[in-house]
Write a structure and sequence with these properties.
The protein has 277 residues and is α+β, with helices and mostly antiparallel strands. 42% of the residues lie in helices and 28% in strands. The relative contact order is 0.07.
């Protein structure tokens, strides 16, 4: 190979090497742009999620864990700035009396990769509020960390409290007035009875519903009562009866008064019969 040919080959080799370097740089740039877009998308989802989201290191016996990242909802929910929360960890937002729960969660987390709990969290101003939290163990920047979604369930708990109080008052009113509420589901042919209805018929208070035969076996005039039910369903004939029953748990008969109404669906088809005894 003469010097001129050799010089041309060396130039070609240098161009090939240069081209590969340019391609490598371009590929790295594309990868970096894709990573940045992915991180930007994650950040948008992270910050504008409807629930608080917190990334934190695992809680162990020797380390209480620390927050790695938090979204805007978490800051508003807890009353801290992002910078403040990033100097803190899970024990800092849990009331002191619930700290033993943290230890229990850490023991459970050692054998699981996700869990769901209800607890109370502590705001910066010292007030507490109920939350539902689901946590998942994920890999973040090469490390295993917990991703927690936290939902404020204050309104749900308030509704549950109102319903519980209302249910208690309803049960007390039934017991005082000896009035029971019942329903007959026309789709399943099952009877449901309130606590007082079950007491009147002598049924197990823990039973959820009863068959047609179980109810009618307590009624000596079952054919008359059954026909009144059929007349209500098929002809909208008023259901207002008095009849004797033999409670399931007693040999002493009772005379009861029973009134009922029919409920239909949006197409007018009978759904269930609901009544009082």
């Amino acid at each position: 190979m003469d010097d001129e040919t050799k010089s041309k080959q060396e130039l070609i080799n240098e161009l090939i090497v240069l081209r590969r370097k340019v391609e490598d740089i371009t590929e790295r740039k594309r990868a970096e742009e894709a990573r940045q877009k992915s991180e930007e998308k994650f950040r948008n989802v992270f910050d504008w999620a409807s629930d608080a989201i917190i990334l934190h290191t695992p809680i162990t016996e020797g380390a209480p864990g620390r927050f790695i990242d938090v979204n805007q909802i978490a800051c508003r929910m807890l009353g801290y700035s992002r910078d403040e929360l990033l100097t803190m960890g899970p024990p800092d937002i849990v009331p002191t009396e619930l700290h033993p729960l943290i230890g229990e969660i850490s023991r459970q987390a050692a054998t699981k990769e996700s869990f769901l709990i209800e607890a109370r969290l502590l705001r910066k101003d010292g007030t507490t509020f109920p939350v539902e939290s689901s946590a998942h163990l994920i890999t973040y920047e090469g490390k295993r960390v917990w991703l927690s979604h936290i939902r404020d369930i204050t309104e749900r708990k308030q509704v549950e409290d109102v319903l519980r109080i209302s249910e208690g008052r309803y049960r007390m009113a039934e017991a005082i007035g000896h009035v029971g509420n019942w329903e007959y589901n026309l789709q399943t042919t099952k009877f449901w009875g309130s606590d007082e209805a079950k007491r009147i018929y002598g049924f197990d208070p823990e039973a959820l519903d009863f068959s047609t035969d179980e109810v009618e076996n307590c009624i000596p005039e079952r054919e008359r009562v059954h026909q009144a039910l059929v007349d209500l369903i098929e002809a909208d004939k008023p259901y207002n009866l008095e009849f004797e029953i033999h409670p399931k748990n007693s040999l002493k008969p009772r005379i009861i008064s029973s009134v009922a109404a029919l409920k239909r669906d949006e197409h007018g088809n009978p759904l269930l019969v609901t009544g009082l005894i």
